[in-house]
Each structure stands twice: as C-alpha cells, then as structure tokens.
Amino acid sequence: MPHPAIARGHVAVITGGASGIGFAAAKRFLQAGMKVAIADIDADHLARAGELLANATAGGAGDVLSLQTDVSKPEQIEALQDAVIARFGGVDVLMNNAGIELTSTALGPRDNYQRIIGVNLWGIIHGSQIFAPGMIARGRPGLIINTGSKQGITTPPGNPAYNVSKAGVKAFTEALAHELRNTPDCAVTAHLLIPGFVFTALTARGRTEKPAAAWTPDESIEFMLARLAAGDFYILCPDNDVPRALDERRIAWAAGDIIENRPALSRWHKDYADAFKAFVEAK
Ligand code: NAI
C-alpha cells in the first residue's frame, strides 16, 4: 500500500522538478493519478519538463502546473503556493528538492556559501514554513519530503558549503518532524530523503552515460516511495556501489569521532586509515 498522501486526485509540489530526482518524482506522482506542480529556476528545462509530463499523463496539461521559482526567495514560494491553490485547491505532498553544488573551501569566497545555503537550506526552510500551515489545515495525511545528502551527515572533505547546507537540511527536517508530530490534529509528517549517488545533471560532470555505481533518478524515487509506505523518516538510499551496511558503518564512525575524541573527519586522516578500514570490515 502506498502512503495515503500519494493517491489519485491528490496534489504534489516538487521544487527542482524540471530535472533529475525531482522530475522522476513528478513522473511517478502523475502515474499515481496525482496532480503535480513543478517549480524550478531554469525556465527552458521547466518548459520542456512540463511538456514531457503533460504528454505522459492521461490527464494531460490539466494535471501539470509549471512555475518558474527561485526557492531562495520566500516571496516566490508564496506565489507558488498561491498558484497551486488557485489551480488544484491544496497540497498533499511537498518535495523540497531543489539543490545546487558549486565549489567551496572552508576559507574560500563567501559568495558560493551564500548561494548554496540560499538554495539548499533556505529553500527548504521557506518551502516548509510557507506550505506546512495550509497542509496541516487541510486535515488529511500529508508529506513534506526534504532532500538532504549523505554529505550532510558524514561531511566529507571537498565542499564544505554544500555539507553545511545539507547538515542544516537534516537538522531542520528533524525539528520539523518533531514539531509536526506534536501538533494536535496534524496528519502531515516530514521525511529526510538521503539519496545515494544518482546520475543527474548535478553529478554528470560531462558524462553522458550513467556510471555503473550510480542509481537512476527513477530507482531512487521507487525506493523513496517504498520507504514512505513503510513510514521511514530517514530515507537512506543505497546505490550500486554503497550498500546500506557500508553507509551505517560510515555514519557510526563519523558519530564516533566525538565519542572517541578523534580529530575532525578522522575517516580521511592518514593516522586513522587502518582503524577506519578495520571498523568498516568488523561485523
Ligand atoms: P538536478 O540538477 O538534476 O536537479 C536540480 C534542479 O534544481 C534543477 O532542475 C535546477 O534547475 C533546480 N534548481 C537549482 N536552483 C534552484 C532554485 N534556486 N530554485 C528552484 N530550482 C532550482 O540534480 P539532482 O541530482 O536531481 O538534485 C536534486 C536534489 O538531490 C538536490 O537537492 C541535490 O543536492 C540532492 N542530491 C543529489 C544527489 C545525486 O547524486 N544526484 C546525491 C545527494 C543529494
């Protein structure tokens, strides 16, 4: 049985819905008989995606709303909500998924920090805060799915601004889940989607063929739907390279840095290479 919010005639809003994981979700929600609004900053991709989705659904263009939206700007998310309510009457599923990955270093320029945090973290805070009250008032089962990342949990070296944004998404979404479950008469729940390596525009880096290690966006969304049906908050996706058991060891090691008083990011510290390897291999 799918999650009850995912049902014929219900309404889904997906940010970053013109590409990758968001587009795959839009396709799948339409297949479930839902009406879908995709919001994206990229006007060309949005127009193409809207057309593809309308052609792929029995309801045609009437079931699809495409709206150019910059999720880092709250007034644009408010306009998105107004447009969705005017067209479809309300929202049952909100997927705050838009994300960018620009380069950064800890002491590097502030610009990319502001842009990445503006989209990846503020976009999710704006989306949740603006849509949740109406979803709760609707009085029926609802879902808020925020797209995080393993990089927000194990925070590997390489792109601290991205890690900071996604660690913020995790902390915010945990707090949101807690608040929603303690809100009287609230049937809306929050969930943290943690994709594995997924072949999309974000990760293609010039490649035109999916690397063997990566999942497709469609596989990721099928996994997400199964875990939502099971009631998971942490939707921790594997990929073709990293099974759940390995993720679990990596997450436990990262938490262990504090408990064991090891240096920061000891997983990538030469003095801890053997210990980390042994920890991963231990049953
Ligand atoms: P994608 O690049 O295919 O899709 C992201 C979409 O977000 C694009 O259509 C883009 O135009 C849109 N977007 C960017 N800035 C925006 C803004 N300010 N307002 C509205 N839309 C905006 O990438 P993908 O991989 O589908 O990414 C979706 C989410 O999944 C992101 O949050 C990403 O960080 C996350 N993720 C992806 C992973 C992967 O391996 N592909 C792994 C972990 C997390």
Keywords, separated by commas or semicolons:
283 residues; alpha/beta; Rossmann fold; 2 domains; seven-stranded parallel β-sheet; 9 helices; 13% strand; binds 1,4-dihydronicotinamide adenine dinucleotide
Instruction: Report the bound ligands by name, code or SMILES.
Output: 1,4-dihydronicotinamide adenine dinucleotide
Structural class: alpha/beta
Q: Report the sheet-strand fraction.
A: 5-15%
Distance between the termini: 34 Å
Structure description:
β1 (11-15), α1 and β2 (35-40) form a beta-alpha-beta unit. The protein is globular. The protein has 283 residues and is of the alpha/beta class. Strands 3-2-1-4-5-6-7 form a seven-stranded parallel sheet, sandwiched between helices. It folds into two domains: 11-241, 3-Layer(aba) Sandwich (Rossmann fold); 243-283, no CATH class. The model has no long low-confidence stretch (mean pLDDT 97). α1 (20-31) crosses α7, α3 packs parallel to α4 (110-137) and α4 runs parallel beside α5. It is built from nine helices and seven strands; from the N terminus they run βαβαβαβαβαβααβαα. 1,4-dihydronicotinamide adenine dinucleotide is lined by residues 15-16, 18-22, 40-42, 45, 69-72, 97-100, 119, 147, 149, 195, 197-198, 200-203.
